[in-house]
Amino acid sequence: MRGLFQLCQNPPPIAVKNKFQWINRERLYWARRFNVAMSEAVPEGFPASTADLQLVLCLVAQEYPDSLILMIQRMYREYWAEGNSTSLTPEGFSGILAQELGSQRAERVLALAKIPESKSALDENTQKAFGSGAFGLPWLDCTQPGGETEGFWGIDHLGRVVDFLHLDRSLDDSFGVLL
């Protein structure tokens, strides 16, 4: 994320006066609205560097793509739902990797993460996001079945994502607030 902020010269949200308080209220509101597990307290040490974890997740996507969603779900749960700030550190996420991928796969991903060339995966993803218009997170690049693509920023734009993808809003009453 830091790389994306640097590319588009966007200050981190925590650096903008009053923005942290607003973001904190919003994260709790949207979590409740969509019934997403979320710790009431901000994880200790927030904001923390996520570069090491981002690299590992890029490598999981390359090496074991079928495990990526489970890893993202687990890392979200550890950090945001449980408030486990050590989960963002190599010491913290290596055990989680082993639990989710198995020890051999986890060791492979962690070994690849130490190779300087592996960082190119994260750099390429950052450049791709920037090239599609991203300036922060969450950023969603969505593609309709006909091939039309559009980018969306922020949780409060999920209603537009649903409309763009022609999804059924009636499946969740929470979308009613996203007019």
UniProtKB/TrEMBL annotation:
Classification via SUPFAM superfamilies: Thioredoxin-like
Q: Which residues form the DSBA-like thioredoxin domain?
A: 8-161
What highest taxon heads this organism's lineage?
A: Eukaryota
The processes (GO biological process) annotated in the record are: glutathione metabolic process
| UniProt GO MF annotations | glutathione peroxidase activity; glutathione transferase activity
Name one cellular component (GO) term: mitochondrion
Q: Can you say what this protein is called? A: DSBA-like thioredoxin domain-containing protein
Q: Which species is listed as the source? A: Penicillium salamii
